[in-house]
Amino acid sequence: MGRSRISLVLVACGVLVAGRATLAYAWQPGPVVQPAGEPSAEGQPSSDPNADVKALINSPEARSVAAFRCSSLQKPDCPLNEVTSNTLTAHFDDTLLTGQGAATALIAELEKLLNTSYKSDALWPVGIDYAIVHLVQFSEDGSSNRGRWLLFRRLKGKVTASMGTRIMGSKRVAIVFIHLGQKFTKSVAEEEVAARYANVEYRAIAKPKLPINVQRLLGLLKLATRTQAAEDTTAAILGFGVYDGLPVPCDLTVFGAHVGPIPVGFGNPITYDNEGKYFWDASVAVPINKITLLDYDETDGTFTPKVINKQSIYGCIDIYPFPVDIKEGTQRWFVPRAMVGIGMTGRPGENFLLAGAFGIKEFQVFIGSAFANQRVLKPGADPANGANYTQRYASRLAYGINVPVLAALKKLGGSD
Fold first, then answer.
1. Please, where are the H alpha helices in 230-348?
2. How big, in percent rounded to 5, are the helix, strand and coil portions of the chain?
3. Which uninterrupted H or E stretch holds 122?
4. pTM score, whole prediction
5. Partner residues linked to 281 by β-bridges
6. Count of other CB atoms within 10 angstroms of residue 77
7. At what angle do helices 82-90 and 105-114 cross, to 10 degrees?
8. 3-state secondary structure 202-213
9. pLDDT tens, 318-328?
């Protein structure tokens, strides 16, 4: 066996072992929660308006993270004072940035609040990269509320805010909730706050999942075989906590609710995609020798082959020189990378590819050497005698389009 084939086998084995290890971790059995509106055990649809909240609260995987800590009535102890709550109320609907690219009054006030502490407990402890903030504003009569989920990130000493749901592989996340305009009886407001928020919790459910590159590797296998009367006063409420030991990667669902016989949620839950960067990804190399064989997909804004012939393509592992985000951003397109591919038909190892890939989002190309195992007659030997033949790899120049796994499945009529 030649060095090239040995290298290919070692790489493939390493990737498959890593994939199996991840599968064993991510596929741990967990409880199944029936979603609201789905048929019950008796086959009847659920009519319980609180079914969604109950399902989340009753999930054995739900972990209590943030609880009520103080209100603006507790002067001067609570960092969420009257000035801060008034600013947040007045600027509740602000965008995140001004026209000049600076933080708006809403984001500046939240960032200032996140840098405070209550009874020596930091709202956003040092060393935690992300803080999830749920900002809720109640109507004057308290019968309804509206909320905003915001994600704050510390990176190289700079804090940024977004409404995105992507967390870059963090094992610790701070969760902070701020409720504005809650109405209480003026004479007993502090007692009412304590009683009303005694059972309020913000919980999180972390669902481990397969890394995206392993999902794409499995896609290659799929290709190969075929988610009040008294005088009132208002107060702003502050609660916070930290989720430690997050599995990476995972889908992190965060929600707030008043826990009790009839649980009441505060707005809609939100799910964050917590996944970091990787050294490798999976793709399909499709040899192309004519530009007329390409088709432009207006939906994805990319060039793909008009027809994919499974007899000539290679399932590839793309190896980056450093970890990159293979789900978002542009770096994954621009960074040149090495490719090791195996023919999608025939016996394993009969055909393989060693190449490099590069390009832009719209057009990813590869160039390298394709190796094929051939039966060659020994010099001067009798061709009629099968024992006079030997197996040998022959190489040739190969180039074409590097296609995402799901795009290849789509061309071949597969499902993801």
1. 331-334
2. 20, 40, 35
3. strand 121-122
4. 0.77
5. 318
6. 10
7. 150
8. EEEEEEECCCHH
9. 999 999 999 88
